[in-house]
Amino acid sequence: MRFKPFFYLIVSILVLITQLFSQNKNPVILVHGFMGWGPDEMGSYKYWGGKFDIEKELKANGFEVYTANVGPVSSNWDRAVELYYQIKGGQVDYGKTQVEKYGIIQKPNNKEYIGLYPEWSDENPVHLVGHSMGGQTIRMLDYLLKTAITDSSLKYEESQLLGQINEGWIKSITSISTPHNGTTLSDIVTSGIPFLQDFIGLAAVVGNSFYNFDLEHWGFKRDGEETWGSYFSRMRKHPAWRTKNSVAWDVSVQGAREMNSLCIANPNIYYFSYVTSNTILDSTSNRHVPDKNMSYIIRANARLMGMKKAYYSDGSETDSTWFENDGIVNKKSMLGPTTGINGSDPISNYRINDILIPGQWYVMGEYKSDHRKFVGHSIRKEKFEELIKIYVEHLLLLWTLPK
């Protein structure tokens, strides 16, 4: 498919037209998911783009884009705190609340940031785009921004993020392949890290000296010349892994239900979700099996998810409508949050002539893609160009949102 010159001509025209009529050009922050990494941690291989570079392509099309690098196995609370300080700048402060609950280090020495966008405020909001667990993390950040947190003595936290209300700092939230209601994969894989064959492919980081679990707040770091295998093994055995302060809990169906009960849709934020699916129904068994185009590394996951159920603490369970998946996340979980005690967030399918309203999730479409490919992994150049077209069109839509 050789359409590159024509494609970029059309994109350039669209960007020009949208620039003339856009109401805002707020920066876009890309937030990775479980086991993700920052722009420089894996050499030239990017989380956002694989062998290519989504951030670079979006910048070339006129957008202000930054890529965050939060804890790859940390809880959504901890990741959201890190995300705040990475955008705004300053010393990370997880809060006395987290210290009291989990015994973590409140202000790790080496977690202080200059800030990707120090101007960030209610007058200079941002668009947040999260892939996989990143979509949960940015919803948690919204909760922390709009809520003044108190510790066990009912005193407000002392940090700017946790101790006061900062409404209006987020213009929109976009989730891509996000387990808003959890993933049944976390309940299937019970030993070690859930999703052991997640989309990065652990083989890609074995021996890489730059990859870091960013768990200094757990009092955990890599020792000198320690092999990556030993580093990974020690992390799996760390006691914090078996608490609710980790990815394992947050992406379970019960953990997601509890998060959804806190992180309800903000009436001042525009919400969008992208859905991916790469399994097909086997009519003889009523199970879902991997499509032939699915990446080999996650086919075993997809097969398990296509037949297994997960359980909530009250004894209820997921049903066969959860079987369809993209190899990591169940399709049903990607549309938007539905399982909180307050009921579902408003969710509807996006139509091109819709007058967009805040506080409402718009499903931007379902794509025949596995969990890895929609962020650029294991695809060829022509497919990457098609993917960039989807991203560019979405960011142009974000530009049309009111100030």
Sequence-ordered SSE layout with sheet pairings:
Layout: H1 4-21, E1 28-31, H2 54-60, E2 65-67, H3 76-88, E3 90-91, H4 96-102, E4 112-113, E5 126-131, H5 133-146, E6 170-176, H6 185-188, H7 228-237, H8 247-250, H9 253-262, E7 270-277, E8 279-282, E9 287-290, H10 299-305, H11 331-334, E10 347-349, E11 361-368, H12 381-399
Parallel strand pairs: 1-2, 1-5, 5-6, 6-7, 7-11, 10-11
Antiparallel strand pairs: 3-4, 8-9
Strand order of the largest sheet: 2-1-5-6-7-11-10
The major β-sheet equals: 7 strands, parallel
Helix-strand topology string: HEHEHEHEEHEHHHHEEEHHEEH
Number of strands: 11
* Shape type: globular
Number of domains: 1
Q: What is the count of DSSP helices, taking H or I runs of 4+ residues?
A: 12
Radius of gyration: 20 Å
**Residue share in helices?**
25-40%
- The CATH class, by name, is Alpha Beta
Mean pLDDT: 88
The fraction of residues in strands falls at 5-15%
SS-derived structural category: alpha/beta
- Our measurement of the CA-to-CA distance between the termini, rounded to an integer number of angstroms, reads 38 Å
The parts where pLDDT drops under 50 for at least 5 residues are: 1-9, 190-207
CATH overall fold name: Rossmann fold
CATH architecture group name: 3-Layer(aba) Sandwich
Query: What is the quaternary state of this protein?
Result: single chain
So, the CATH homologous superfamily? Alpha/Beta hydrolase fold, catalytic domain
What does this structure look like?
- The protein has helices spanning 4-21, 54-60, 76-88, 96-102, 133-146, 185-188, 228-237, 247-250, 253-262, 299-305, 331-334, 381-399, and strands spanning 28-31, 65-67, 90-91, 112-113, 126-131, 170-176, 270-277, 279-282, 287-290, 347-349, 361-368.
- The chain is an alpha/beta fold and 403 residues long.
- The chain has a single domain (4-278, 331-399), classed as Rossmann fold.
- A seven-stranded parallel beta sheet has the order 2-1-5-6-7-11-10, with helices on both faces.
- The chain is globular.
- The protein starts with a helix and ends with a helix.
- Residues 1-9 and 190-207 have low confidence and may be disordered.
